[in-house]
Amino acid sequence: MSRIPAIGLRLVQLLPVLIGITIVTFLLVKLSPGDPVRLMLGDRATEETVAAVRAQLGFDLPLWKQYLSYAGNLLQGDLGQSIRYRLPVLDLILGVMPRTLFLATYVLVLSIPATVILSVVAARHAGKPVDQIIRILSVIGMTIPVFWLGIMLARFLGVELGLFPVSGYGDGFIDHLHHLFLPALSTSVWLVPMLVRNLRASILEQMEADYVVASRAKGLPARYIFGRHILPNSLLPTLNLLGVMIAFLIGGSVIVEIVYAVPGLGGLMIEAVLARDYTVIQGLTLFYALGTVIVTLSVDLISTWIDPRVQL
Amino acid sequence: MSTSTVAPLVSIRNLSVDIVAAGSAVPAVRNVSFDIMPGDILGIVGESGSGKSVTCRAVLGLLPAAARLSGQILFQGKDLATMAESEMEKIRGRDISMIFQNPSSHLDPIMKIGAQIGEPLRQHQGISASKARAAGIRVLEDVRIAEPERRIDSYPHQLSGGMKQRAMIAAAISCGARLLLADEPTTALDVTVQARILELLKGLKESRQLSIVLVSHDLGVIAQLCNRIMVMRRGEIVEQGETSTIVADPQHEYTRLLIASQPGRRQPAVRSTATHAAPILLAVRNLVVSFPRPAGIRETLTRSDRTFRAVDEVSFEVRSGESLAIVGESGSGKSTIARSIIGLIRPSGGTLHCDGQDVTALTGDALRRFRRSAQMIFQSPYDSLNPRLAVGEAIAEPMIQHGLMTPKAARHRVGELMEMVELSPDLARRRPHELSGGQCQRIGIARALALSPRLLIADEITSALDVTIQAQILDLLRRLRDSQRLTMIYVSHDLAVVRTFCDRVAVMKGGRIVEMGEVSDVLGQPKEAYTQELLASVPKLFGADPVPVEPQHA
Fold first, then answer.
1. How many Å lie between the alpha carbon of A222 and the closest alpha carbon of chain B?
2. Contacts of B171 in chain A (CB under 8 A)
3. How far is B92 from chain A (nearest CA, A)?
4. Cross-chain residue pair B155–A309, CB shorter than 8 Å
5. CB < 8 Å to B122, chain A
6. What are the pLDDT digits (tens) for B68-110?
7. CA-closest candidate to residue A97, choices A243, A266, A244
8. Is the CB of residue B223 less than 8 Å away from at least one CB of chain A?
9. Would you say domain B280-537 falls under CATH 3.40.50.300?
10. Chain A neighbors of B108, CB-CB under 8 A
């Protein structure tokens, strides 16, 4: 089966989605209350100045013309100017994005092995004390609010024990790891239980599958059957859940980033919202949407790689 | 073949298996002893719950964790019953291997066939992946899969049911096993495919000096392949011996019942009423039913034809009081026809006339009236009943829904209907899971009869039932058909049942009717090659020609 053309077609299918996203982000600013020109110029500007700036920025044109020019600018990588900072939005976003991506990757690196290990242990000892302990910890992890856990971890591991910095991003890779450990941990504590519940159930279901008995009848050892047959077959539902969660994570980075004062996308978003910096909000929305599209596409691609029955 | 001087391959002595559930032990196999001789094809026949599969799995130590086993399973001087798991793993797949009923679920869906066939080779002989692949291609040739070099890289879902079963057999024999345990290996397959798999097993027995234990509910399959038969019931062996002896001269009452229940054994009912002159009740003209094909992106873009014709220009008539059989293999469109007649599926073309009315054009009250006159009985008795509804309510439901009766009157009528299907009205308060499969199917029939239909459509109604139950249900239907003057459409893959139960038969393949006519003509002297192949594939209990069909009309 040729997978390359299928991927190409899938990308073509994404075009309408992307166009839809740009329309929504465009309207987002147009429909929001308040006049951005007023916001730029301040309350004391005269009507004439406002009108002149409006004409200069093209805000007096019909909506569809404005959209076309917006879309044209997007194609050239121009997301407009931040109303507050008077800097290109793209530069602002690209400037802080690596930190958020670093944090998100960090969360995944912590969460995925933990999820697999805990799920396997829980499923192999289903109903036994180990499984019960994992279940109780999962419920606790899911019910603790991330912001509270963040504050508590910062207080005890950070301030009292001085093991980790409680704010900032640090310089250099190792320093990033050190600085972002607590934010990544508090996010993982919330993410892992959800994935564990899902994967554990999926493993238990696959352990009952007929091909497991057939594999035993071939003389294959239990450990091999588990690793080579049961686990790969169990991953798919959890992978799909993970995809949704990652999309959530990018948007959900706001809380952790604020609690730990990590200057990432979340911090930028809060600032932009408070300052009514519409062009930045618009740019961030576009990035979040793009991120979700990319994550979904990746999950689908990985799914076809794991399970040949899945069609793109 | 087996003489007393040859040592048995496997000796089973006093084997008992209890399944422990909720603190109490339910016996699944009781004190069973038998030998498997080299070169044997031993058939174990029995109905569901007879312990035949459990016995088979016990030999390989594949029982569920809740099973408690006692007795001896002697193989090459060792007792498999007490053997450690690590020792057992060396025997499984190398000396003794097993194949299963449903090849689709017993193969790992996300692993290539080649890798799955290579697994036992790599495990037991420690050979490299590339050598295992080469060996796998040779084994695929042995199980007669065409283009083995290409097929070895297929995933299970890319193969047909028959090919999947061949692949499973290939994995089982790849290490040169001495004994193959085959647990209902053909039950999920179409009859023509079944015939080819059985032939393959017979060939492998000769070419590889393989002994085979064949577990089946189908005495016909067993009799066709096996030299020895063991009949099991309720965990016990009731009779064992040479096939010819058991079939010709069964000693045990239960064996006699099994043989008598075989559909081919029953004489066709001589129908009292000649139906030739009766008016046409249902006329189907050029019926087409299309389904959308699951479309990939490529098909969407190229706008290629995305419909699949499950039923392709089919025409037939059913006369009042007649029983028409629609036979064919899976995917032939037979059930789709049945469903489109009662309006569960909307036809994409053609007409359906019932009593001169165009059924596809009916709306409102007229449609409700038509639905009352045509009722259906379904394949799986459990799945077609709401598990939370008492069966009496299930029978009463259509009468109340159609506004024919008050709930009180309906309750009285339920009692009558249950007696009509030979069930005690006391069972009306039970839920479906508290009844047996046969009882549930009787409930299904009672519910279909509740609206006093003229046309009764039976869709594979006996294929989920044990053969003795199947015989009882068919007897019941025969009586009801006569007393209620029912017109029937009987959809089935089982030619033996059709032969004794129906007046006319339509043979379907690929959505079309290939041959249609009187049962005695079509199944007696089939004209079409496909009908001949179907008939030749039906396992015969006596190895001879099918039981002669008596003339239907005086």
1. 9
2. 218
3. 4
4. yes
5. none
6. 899 999 998 899 999 999 999 999 999 999 999 888 899 999 9
7. A266
8. no
9. yes
10. 211, 215, 229, 233
CB < 8 Å from B in window 192-211 of A: 209-211
How far does the CA of residue B136 sit from the closest CA of chain A (Å)?
Answer: 14
Beta-carbon separation of B298 and A6 below 8 A:
yes
Contact A213 B62 (CB under 8 A): yes
CB within 8 Å: A217 and B105: no
Beta bridge partners of B26: B19
B444 phi, psi to nearest 5 deg: -60, -40
Q: Roughly what angle, to the nearest 10 degrees, separates helices A146-153 and A173-207?
A: 130
How far apart CA B549 and CA B499 sit, in angstroms, is 8
Q: B525: Cβ–Cβ under 8 A, 6 or more apart, which residues?
A: none
Cβ within 8 Å, pair A224-B89: no
**Domain range list for chain A:** 4-75, 99-306
- B9 neighbors B37 (Cβ within 8 angstroms): yes
User: Which of A237, A297, A240, A310 lies closest to A1 in space, CA to CA?
Assistant: A310
Short-list B164, B263, B170, B231, CA closest to B493: B263
Reported ipTM: the value is 0.80
Query: What is the structure's pLDDT at B546?
Result: 39
**Amino acid at residue number B449:** L
Question: Edge to edge, what strands does the sheet with B96-99 contain?
Answer: B96-99, B179-183, B211-216, B41-45, B228-233, B236-242
Of B157, B168, B298, the CB nearest to A309: B157
Q: pLDDT exceeding 70 applies to what percent of chain B?
A: 92
Chain B residues touching residue A220 (CB < 8 angstroms): 89, 93, 119-120, 123
What 8-state DSSP symbol labels residue B81?
A: G
Minimum mean pLDDT range among A4-13, A91-100, A283-292, B442-451: A4-13
What does the mean pLDDT of chain B come to? 87
Three-state secondary-structure class, residue B364: helix
Residue A305: closest C-alpha in chain B: B110
The pLDDT, as a whole number, for residue B266 is 59
Q: Are B461 and B377 in contact (CB under 8 A)?
A: yes
pLDDT digits (tens, 9 = 90+) for A31-70: 777 676 777 777 777 888 888 887 877 777 888 888 888 8
In CATH terms, the fold of domain A99-306 is MetI-like fold (1.10.3720)
pLDDT tens-digit series, residues B425-441: 989 999 988 888 889 99
Closest CA to B113 of A311, A30, A214, A6: A214
